[in-house]
Design brief:
Layout (H helix, E strand, L loop, with lengths): L1 E5 L6 H15 L3 E6 L13 E5 L13 H16 L3 E5 L1 H17 L6 E5 L2 H4 L8 H10 L2 E4 L2 H10 L6 E3 L7 H4 L6 H4 L5 E6 L8 H12 L4 E6 L5 H10 L6 E5 L5 H4 L4 E4 L8 H8 L4 E4 L4 H4 L6 E4 L4 H12 L2 H16 L3 H16 L4
Parallel strand pairs: 1-2, 1-4, 2-3, 4-5, 5-6, 6-7, 8-9, 8-11, 9-10, 11-12, 12-13
């Protein structure tokens, strides 16, 4: 197959999953064309069957806001025609699904019928998509897609609840390549923590929905019972506020801020526990990555997290904002080596259920169905 993948090229979960999916498809000898405005951060090599098409946006004085959607549509038309693509797979509804719809209509006038698959990742539906200024368009392009997927049962339910869908949603969860987390890694523990200290980790984009302040408050309570270090990975608008709170609570000297990291496998290999305090997560890819590194997770019980983090088996689920419960569960896991070992094993077993070997065939079956190749 010749597959066009439209994505955001950033550190966000939708871009990471879309890039990794393309790389896996290329290894199976499918031709993959990434189409976006800059090289995806996880596209760390170019090899056989991998192509990148950059969407250029003109800086024209007439426009207060650059018309990326129109430029993307034109680029999709160009790539589909000249690379003879079989299908387009767009990740994140806004504006990729609407740009793909426009391209599809243009191509249809030229006698080319290109199927479009739209994958919903979360905030494109639960946050931005509910905005009245976007909702009619998002509802329309979802229904006009040849297939629609969501990364969790929770996101599928939310989509059905808030939109008038005539289209069936196929739930295909996010995935990881387990081998990347089980290979021998340089353990950074010695540079992060002193002997006898536990290492707790959080990875996010430091936005309000992640409630990173709760991470700091949980850590402060844990420090009262267990010698620990807190490692923050990522960056975003609330980082300064988080650093300030660390100082106010007297734990800044025990915290390490690593900033954005392209691949998190090495730092996760140094962790004993992962904290994810989000107000909502449509899936929780960061939690899954932690589990693949045999790191138990304390998370909230919202969105798709209960589908990933199994309470009492891979970690614990707590109510949003319940800092006391999160600290109590964290201490329960970290204060006993045998308990920690049991949760590590449970986390890794769960991660294997989301391995690429389990999930990739679901996408391939969907592609064949949309193309009519399964008949």
């Amino acid at each position: 197959m010749k597959i066009g993948i439209v994505l955001y090229p950033t550190f966000g979960g939708s871009g990471v999953v879309a890039t990794e999916l393309g790389k896996e498809l290329a290894q199976l000898d499918h031709q993959v064309h990434f189409i976006t405005y800059s090289q995806p951060v996880r596209l760390d090599y170019f090899g056989k069957n991998i192509f990148y098409h950059e969407v250029s946006v003109l800086d024209y004085p007439l426009f207060d806001y650059l018309p990326y959607e129109i430029n993307l549509s034109s680029k999709l038309v160009d790539v589909v025609k000249h690379e003879k693509l079989d299908l387009l797979h767009v990740h994140y509804a806004i504006p990729h699904a609407s740009a793909a719809y426009m391209a599809k209509q243009i191509l249809k006038k030229e006698g080319i019928d290109i199927p479009v698959i739209t994958t919903l990742h979360g905030t494109d539906i639960t946050l931005v998509g509910k905005d009245p200024s976007f909702e009619p368009v998002i509802n329309f392009v979802m229904n006009e897609s040849d297939a629609l997927t969501a990364v969790s049962e929770s996101l599928a339910r939310d989509t059905y609840e808030h939109f008038k869908l005539e289209k069936k949603i196929d739930v295909i969860p996010n995935f990881i390549r387990i081998e990347r987390y089980t290979e021998d890694k340089k353990n950074l523990r010695a540079t992060i923590a002193q002997k006898g200290e536990r290492v707790i980790m959080h990875i996010s984009n430091f936005r309000p929905v992640k409630r990173v302040e709760d991470v700091v408050r949980v850590f402060a309570k844990v420090c009262e019972k267990i010698p620990s270090r807190m490692v923050f990975v990522g960056d975003g608008p609330e980082r300064f506020k988080i650093e300030t709170l660390c100082r106010e609570l007297g734990v800044y000297s025990k915290c390490v801020f690593l900033g954005k990291i392209r691949s998190t496998e090495e730092v996760l290999a140094s962790a004993d526990l992962f904290l994810l305090t989000s107000e909502t997560e449509s899936f929780g890819l960061a939690a899954l990555e932690a589990m693949a590194a045999k790191v138990p997770v304390i998370s909230t019980n919202q969105g798709g997290l209960p589908e990933v983090n199994i309470d009492g088996e891979t970690g614990f689920l707590c109510d949003v904002g319940d800092v006391d419960a999160m600290a109590e569960k964290t201490i329960h896991i970290l204060e006993d080596d045998e308990v920690l070992a049991r949760f590590r094993a449970g986390a890794f077993a769960q991660a294997n259920r989301f391995s690429i070997q389990e999930i990739l065939p679901q996408y391939l079956n969907l592609y064949r169905r949309v193309l009519g190749w399964d008949t």
